[in-house]
Amino acid sequence: MDITKKNIVKMSLPTMIALSSTILVGVLSLLIISRIDGYSIAIAAITSVILLNVGSVLNGLGYAVNFIIAQAFGKGDTNELGDILHKSLTSSIIYGFVIVIFALLLPETIFSLMGASDEIIQHGVHYMSIRVVALCFVVVSKVLIGYLRGVGDTKMPMQALVISNAISIVLAFLLAFGHIGFPELGLIGVAIAFFVAECIQMLMLLVITIKRESISLGRIISVKLRHLGYLNKEGLKIGFEDFGINVTMIFFIAFATRLGVTEVASSEIALNILQLAYLPGYAFGITGTVLVGQAFGAKDKAHSQRSHRNLALKILISSLFFMVPISLICFLFPNQLVTLFAIGEVDIHRYATLAIRLASLFLVFDGLQLVLSGVLRGVGDNTFLMVSSLILGCLFFVPFCFFVTFVLNLGFVGIWLSFYIYILFLFICLALRTKKIFK
Where are the domains of the chain? Predict the structure, then answer.
């Protein structure tokens, strides 16, 4: 079947909605936590760093399942689909055991290493433990979402994510402040809300998946560890690719913090607004992984190198229908976007507006590099993605950003300009790789 741009957009929209709901949960949960007390904000910030980096590994497994399932689906091998699913679930259970050990033994040590006060440690250990244990449900959900998207179903994962995200926010509000008969548990209530919502999400995805593919507990337990090598190797590659991106953001914020409160606050506001601008890139990147993976798995005359290239081109063009208008909005109306955050500080408002307008000049390239990453992942080119992410992120961006910001003394503009020069280089790198593979 010839895949049209309309098909590509229809497949990507549910992913965009799911990702939007996740971003909204992050914003609303921060608002809830900020109303509890100052310690809660600090605890949530430290915990989010841990969840971000542990989440890289979990995302890696989910994305690995996604492209491997897509390739198997393209072959039309139903036995292989079931085999991959059960191996993936076995891996998720192993990850779960590691996560529980981590949650029981390390939170207090982590808070201490990050220089937290005794009060933060006292209040934060239980919050972090609950949030980390909830990752046991998250890793299973990542596997199931990867499976469902791999076979071309993006609507059902969207429904599960939107419902569970809505539950997490409503429950967090009720448990944090004790409304309509619920106990007032403060920050612990927020953690419990996330725990319950992640469990519900996993159960919903299990029910959805079982309707497509029978799952046998005995088959999951009987999987040999030596048979998990390829899946977990590819998952770790994707996890390290994610880690390279995380390093750039950690140093980006660290350098902004070194410049001053105004600069870091402006950057945080701009990054929160720009999260929505990146959604098309992420969504069409996932679609690229699925469709290119399915075509690559088919390996017949109808799916030649030329058709792979044409499919990748269609996905890139389809993503532009969303990314170009978003870039124009950011360029023309940055002041209005910043005003949505009701910032009273004139300098913060001015710097955030400048950051968004500067970002708007590069947003298309940022979105396209996300799509190209997805396309390359569809053919299993994860080693290249990992190496390029680590080299450009750790070895190029960090020293280059420091040089431009502090040595050339470009300050706030230097941070944002160096970040998008890094993004531009990443786009060029991935574009050349895609051209080589699909020549």
Answer: 35-223, 237-439
Distance in angstroms (rounded) separating the CA atoms of residues 16 and 282: 8
Take residue 390 and report the two structure tokens written for it.
């680590």
Query: CA-to-CA distance for 77 and 61, rounded, in angstroms?
Result: 21
Look at residue 383 and give its three-state secondary structure. Answer: helix
Q: Write the pLDDT tens digit of every residue in 210-247.
A: 988 777 777 777 677 666 788 889 988 998 888 888 88
Residue count of the chain, please give it: 439
Cβ 132 vs Cβ 107: under 8 Å: yes
Q: Tell me the residue type at 251.
A: F
DSSP character at residue 31: H
pTM, 2 dp: 0.88
Amino acid at 416: W
Report the C-alpha gap between 111 and 191 in whole angstroms: 17
Centre a 10 Å sphere on the Cβ of residue 331 and count the other Cβ atoms it contains.
Answer: 15
Q: What is the DSSP code (8-state) at residue 4? A: P
What letters, b where the CB count within 10 A reaches 16 and e where it falls short, cover 107-137? beebbeeeebeeebbebbbebbbbbbbbbbb
Q: Give the side-chain half-sphere CA count within 13 A for 337.
A: 27
The CA-based diameter of the chain, rounded to the nearest angstrom, is 65
Compute the distance between CA of residue 90 and CA of residue 244 in angstroms, rounded to an integer: 27
Residue 301: what pLDDT? 46
* Residue entry with tokens 């548990």: 185
